[in-house]
Design goal:
Blueprint lengths: L2 E2 L39 H4 L2 H13 L3 E13 L7 E14 L5 E4 L1 H4 L10 E6 L6 E9 L4 E6 L23 E6 L7 E16 L10 E8 L11 E3 L5 E8 L11 E5 H12 L13 E3 L1 E5 L2 E4 L7 H7 L6 E6 L4 H4 L6 E5 L2 E5 L3 E5 L2 E2 L3 H8 L7 E8 L2 E8 L7
Parallel strand pairs: 1-18
Antiparallel strand pairs: 2-3, 2-5, 3-4, 4-7, 5-6, 6-7, 8-9, 8-11, 9-10, 10-13, 11-12, 12-13, 14-17, 15-16, 15-19, 17-20, 18-19, 20-21, 20-22, 22-23
Length: about 425
């Protein structure tokens, strides 16, 4: 039963939707050797610094595990009756990937192989390994749009050409340590750049939220100053031991389409946790765990409905309705889900000019110690969770906050 609320209670403020992201030290001495004792010119190998030798060794050993990805997507453009209706155009794209095991599984970004508008996958995907002139078709084993990850497998590729790159541990990263990026910037295949890890916990929107707003889910990313440009997406970020610590995914451009020295990579541990599910996806989609709640505050924005948090309402409206300053209003709780088993409650839907809000139920204000004000915030707290994990929530109910524990069972991953 929907009842109407006075418009004065729920004036929306500043609603903004969408997310934009499109030494070694050499000892120096002032002393000069006597003319008779001048050292002979060093050989090239002897003159190489320790860091150079390390980088060269990484490239020699692991660059053969890099994969160059090409995609083709057929797009029909409506030219109107005057020009004969629709016209099909083929959009081409390039990106990077790398082998993760001896079976030939290739990890890359979802957006490298995504279809139009980030939905589905490209019509044709081919991969080419280092030293080979011919590209071979690749099939999609599984996709995880919310994580911006996808798993491919090359068809008919000789076993000796499959060179997996070992996976490292992104939880042990330290700011300042070496980072080597591999990929195909601007289509320049099998390129290598070097820098450092600039930050280990940069929070940025990654992937596709699935809520219809186009926003990515805010996730922890590795920031690096190793040059990353369009085409590097999906390529590996390696440490000084040659192990993968991240999957290159985005750059901050400062208004241009070129690298500004700020690149981001998905931590490899997030990908490692997803690999079993991607391998079992059968070409389908892997989604983040779900508690089993729907958003209870829906507004009309930019011609479509969007789920938003309480912070977009006026302070007066929140006070009149007895709601906190921010939080995710719980609309409905699906039966036989972690949310239902944890005792979360949905509210009764009431209309207001420009939207609908569910009142009388719970408002989730915090998840795993992090503030929640949107469905994406709740999803972000679940991204790295596995079956059996417990999620700690703080819930506003009847004017008071309380702690709720929800356990992620098999239903959260269906």
């Amino acid at each position: 039963m929907k009842t109407r609320l006075p418009a004065v209670f729920l004036v929306l403020l500043g609603l903004g939707l969408g997310a934009t992201l499109l030494r070694d030290q050499v000892p120096v001495s002032g002393a000069q050797p006597p003319a008779s004792q001048e050292a002979a010119p060093a050989t090239e190998a002897g003159a190489r610094l320790q860091n150079e030798r390390n980088t060269i060794d990484i490239v020699r050993r692991y660059e053969p595990g890099l994969v160059f990805i090409s995609t083709e997507l057929e797009v029909v453009q409506d030219l109107g009756w005057l020009f004969g209706g629709g016209q099909t155009q083929v959009q081409q794209g390039v990106g990077s990937g790398f082998f993760v095991n001896g079976a030939g599984d290739i990890l890359t970004n979802y957006h490298v192989i995504a279809g139009e508008g980030g939905r589905g996958t490209a019509d044709r995907i081919t991969v080419r390994v280092m030293g080979q002139e011919e590209a071979v078709p690749a099939e999609v084993i599984g996709t995880a749009p919310q994580y911006d990850l996808a798993l491919l497998r090359a068809e008919g590729l000789a076993r000796n050409l499959i060179r997996p790159i070992p996976l490292g541990d992104s939880d042990t990263l330290a700011v300042g340590q070496k980072a080597v990026a591999m990929g195909a910037p601007f289509g320049l295949e099998f390129s290598v750049t070097e820098g450092i890890v600039s930050s280990t916990e940069r929070q940025i929107p990654i992937g596709f939220s699935g809520t219809g707003t186009g926003e990515g889910i805010t996730q922890k990313a590795i920031q690096t100053d190793a040059a990353i440009n369009p085409g590097n997406s999906g390529g590996p970020l390696l440490d000084s031991s040659g192990r993968v610590i991240g999957i290159n995914t985005q750059i901050a451009t400062g208004g241009s389409q070129q690298s500004a020295g700020v690149g981001f990579a998905i931590p490899v541990n997030a990908a490692r946790n997803l690999l079993p599910r991607l391998q079992e996806a059968g070409g389908g989609e892997v989604r983040a765990p779900r508690l089993g709640v729907t958003a209870g505050l829906i507004v009309q924005a930019r011609g479509q409905q969007a789920a938003v948090g309480l912070s977009v309402l006026t302070a007066e409206g929140r006070r009149e309705l007895g709601l906190p300053e921010r939080g995710l209003v719980v609309g409905q709780v699906a039966p036989n889900t972690p949310a239902a088993r944890a005792g979360l409650r949905g509210g009764e839907a009431r209309e207001f000019p420009g939207g609908v809000i569910a009142l009388g139920g719970d408002v989730i204000v915090e998840a795993e110690g992090e503030p929640v004000d949107a469905l994406e915030d709740l999803q972000a707290a679940l991204l790295d969770k596995s079956e059996g994990d417990r999620v700690t929530l703080r819930v506003w109910r009847g004017g008071e906050e309380r702690e709720v524990q929800a356990t992620l069972d098999a239903s959260a991953f269906e």
